[in-house]
Design brief:
The protein is mostly beta strands. It has one domain: Beta Barrel (AttH-like fold). It contains 1 helix and 23 strands. Strands 1, 2, 3, 4, 5, 6, 7, 8, 9, 10, 11, 12, 13 and 14 form a 14-stranded antiparallel sheet that branches. The chain has a 9-stranded antiparallel sheet with strand order 18-17-16-15-23-22-21-20-19, with no helix packed on it. The longest helix has 4 residues, at 50-53. The radius of gyration is 19 Å and the shape is globular. The protein starts with 21 loop residues before the first strand and ends with a strand.
Length: 344
């Protein structure tokens, strides 16, 4: 029996103050997080007052581009007590990584869009700017980066197909919301290290728009990639474990823009050698992929209370994906996998 994606509800939080848990085909337009009862999370001392409890909501938006010669990624993060951004370009031919990042106490200069399909997410400090325009202007979203002489980008990507929204439980009475879509046609250009990278006709974008009352100490694996199967059909994949997997999971792949749900996914890899091949498989047998890493983006930030330890290798995925109608053989999906430990 094939999985049925539910129609998105009108809003995220119901009249009883509880999130509307489920897996939906398409975005939830109204994320009325102000109606959630944050004090019920029982996370002392934050939940001693409603105002402080509201700071437990974390938000992030990530936009990526996968192309023949490079991988690009950029994010805006709003933790309320701190804001952050990063942008990078990995040159697949030379192995060079160019990146910029910044943090802002109390999230000064950070604006976050009210939903995945409205408004703007932005980090701005002086001349540095990262901006994601989520207004669907004739189906197009936009991403802009101004990082001085080191990195800049001007990209637009078309929302084609059906994205997936997952609302799952986190901890005691908490929740996570994520909207994902992978394999979107993209246009524009990026400049990194004085070199210009025009997006090719084969460039594909991905979007992760998320908010959650995530636990202070969190770990996850994540994999995302896009390309074509042996029959020329457009494929996008999004798999994770460690987050968004209580009650419902965000494990989805797309075939020509249509989402296919997969069960719980395992990430089997050498913890001491993340450049060795990874095996990614789902419990229902729909996903059986091997990931071959090439380069890697590293992050190791430790401010005691705030910690981020990230390994994000880039590389090629090969194997099989089983949709409702066919088995899709892939050997040249390109993207990344991730091991991330965070205190936030």
């Amino acid at each position: 029996m094939s999985f049925v994606f539910l129609d998105p509800p009108v809003n995220l939080i119901g009249p009883d103050g509880r999130p509307r848990f489920g897996v939906y085909g398409g975005p939830i337009a109204q994320l009325n997080c102000q109606d959630f009862a944050y004090k019920q999370l029982r996370r002392t001392p934050w939940t001693l007052s409603r105002k402080a409890a509201g700071w437990l909501l974390k938000k992030w938006q990530f936009v990526g581009v996968l192309d023949e010669g490079f991988v690009f990624g950029s994010a805006v993060i709003d933790l309320q007590y701190i804001g952050a951004t990063f942008s990078y370009l990995y040159d697949r031919r030379t192995g060079e990584m160019t990146g910029v990042n910044a943090q802002a106490p109390l999230a000064r200069g950070v604006q976050f869009s009210p939903s995945a399909v409205a408004g703007v997410s932005r980090y701005q400090s002086g001349a540095q700017l990262v901006e994601f325009d989520n207004h669907l202007d004739h189906g197009w979203r936009k991403a802009s980066v101004r990082g001085g002489n080191k990195l800049s980008a001007n990209i637009k990507y078309r929302e084609e197909g059906v994205g997936a929204t997952i609302v799952s439980r986190i901890g005691v009475r908490g929740f996570g919301h994520t909207y994902k879509i992978v394999g979107l046609p993209a246009e524009g250009e990026i400049t990194a290290g004085g070199k210009t990278y025009p997006l090719s006709k084969n460039a594909l974008a991905l979007l992760d728009w998320s908010l959650a009352t995530a636990q202070h100490e969190t770990f996850w694996n994540w994999a995302a990639a896009a390309g074509h199967d042996a029959d020329g059909r457009l494929i996008g994949v999004n798999f994770s474990c460690g987050i968004n997997e209580t009650g419902h999971t965000e494990n989805v792949f797309w075939v020509d823009g249509q989402p296919q749900k997969a069960d719980v996914v395992s990430f089997d890899y050498d913890w001491n050698d993340l450049h060795a091949p990874w095996r990614i498989r789902s419990m229902d047998g729909k996903v059986d992929l091997t990931f071959h890493p090439e380069g890697e983006r590293l992050e190791d930030t430790n401010f005691l209370v705030i910690v981020s330890c990230l390994h994000q290798p880039f590389g090629r995925f090969e194997g099989t994906l089983k949709s409702d109608s066919a088995t899709h053989k892939v050997d040249a999906l390109y993207g990344f996998a991730e091991e991330h430990y965070a205190k936030w």
